[in-house]
Amino acid sequence: MTDWWKKSTVYQIYPRSFMDSDGDGIGDIQGIIQKLDYLKKLGIDIIWLSPVYDSPNDDNGYDIRDYYKIMREFGTMDDFDEMLDAIHQRGMKLMMDLVVNHTSDEHKWFQEHDDFYIWRDEPNNWKSVFSGPAWDYDEAREQYYLHIFSKKQPDLNWENPKLREKVYEMMRWWLDKGVDGFRMDVINFISKDPALPDGPDGDGSQHFMNGPRIHEFLREMNDEVLLKYDCVTVGEMPGAGTDDARIYTDPENREVNMIFTFEHMDLDGGPGGKWDFRELNLVDLKENLEKWQHALHGVGWNSLYWNNHDQPRIVSRFGDDDDFRVKSAKMLATCLHMMQGTPYIYQGEEIGMTNVTFDSIDDYKDIETLNMYKEKLEAGVGHDDIMRSIYAKGRDNARTPMQWSKDANGGFTSGEPWIAVNPNYREINADAALEDTDSIFYYYQKLIELRKSEDIITDGDFRLLHRNHPEVFAYERVHGVAQLVIYCNFSSNEHRFDRPHGEVLIQNYDGLASGDELVLRPWEAVVFDQR
Ligand code: TEU
């Protein structure tokens, strides 16, 4: 078994919003099958599929009712098998979402196995990630159960070995079917401090993130399941720092191949959390990514991402989604894809999809957004203020339908989409991108090819340049004497540097600005190859 995933690029599909084949307004598995050639053309190696299991959809599938059944709206198990075959036929792999920190309250375990969940006579002071207390009272049982997310997502009790065996059995069932790995939802939350102490201001995270038995559980999962298969794993781990990540991803420890860190995604949030948004300080971003590049080099492995189904669109967030949408999308792609790690592309990122600004709160569907809106309104915050933070940070920014064409609803559905399409679909869509040889799509395609052909991208050391420059992110990749020099302008201002020697490997402008200097134009990205 090799580390094939180190040269791979992953594409995340959020099935509800990807492609609807039957006109019910909800994306589905047959829709995914229709678009596999598109992903192959982009150069994708692995597809990460957000949950497709049977679910009442309180949190769009992250609340699973039956791990062995496909969500009715998405299709059947036959559709799934057909999709898995079609993916494999094209030489791609499939990574499933594994959501085992919690289930739906409609999972039969919740009725049948009290000891699979976490019950207390008295709740502690923890607050739910989706607003309100993290505990709900069950009349029949006359006790409270813990739910870090919605009250329809009760947390599983990993202290119980019977529960753990049920989870491993389910994982083996999917791997035996032929899936190629798992993206593990909030997997560093599964071990809680059994005393469940109060946390400061109701923040219990220090008692449930990276908890006392987390490494033991992950190792057990490897010994019981993962090591028997040639598969890839990525742990979604909010609150894991670089010291934790070194332990989680060091192959000697048999835990996960890589993790999703959140540190770089939290830099534009304030002390009040993600909704308390502020301008990104680029120096913070540079130093954070540098820290991760160094910490895992030669030890574990990084995942590289700007987007997923929980994050606003990167071109609207760290780029310029107006005049420089295409340039800044390519710049952001360059900045990320030249680093060491496995890059993840979220659906629509490859065509530069942007955030949305719906006028009415009724157009929003995300439980986190809707609960937060209600809570803030009750606390006296004005509608406009709340909407501003939703525009900047709401998860539905990522969840509007994929924009395939300039046809009605962006070609996503012939029916009424479950969430409105971004009105800019007439201009921003996959058809248009495929017709334009200079599109963001083809730029990503080239970056993906370079990662395969140039070992320095996978193996080289990372060295930050111009550390304190407030608007330019520059770094080198060094492998022996071989060297790549990457310049990325995170602004629409011009910046001048000494011109590095070497040929241009990839850039988002046509040729360099003339002269002996390197003149970085607005949102310019250029990579010099000094080998
Ligand atoms: O998200 C994990 C998580 O910690 C969330 O709080 C995430 O940071 C948040 O959405 C940002 O506001 C995972 C899934 O990716 C997310 O979609 C689920 O809602 C959540 O777990 C519960 O399963």
UniProtKB/TrEMBL annotation:
It is an enzyme of class 3 (hydrolase). It is found in: Cytoplasm. It catalyses: Hydrolysis of (1->6)-alpha-D-glucosidic linkages in some oligosaccharides produced from starch and glycogen by alpha-amylase, and in isomaltose. Its EC number is 3.2.1.10. One of its GO terms (molecular function) is oligo-1,6-glucosidase activity. Residues 12-399 form the Glycosyl hydrolase family 13 catalytic domain. GO terms for biological process: oligosaccharide catabolic process. GO terms for cellular component: cytoplasm. Coiled coil: none annotated. Keywords: Glycosidase, Hydrolase. Pfam families: Alpha-amylase (PF00128). Its main location: cytoplasm. Belongs to the glycosyl hydrolase 13 family. NCBIfam families: PRK10933.1. This is oligo-1,6-glucosidase. It comes from Filobacillus milosensis. The lineage of its organism: Bacteria, Bacillati, Bacillota, Bacilli, Bacillales.
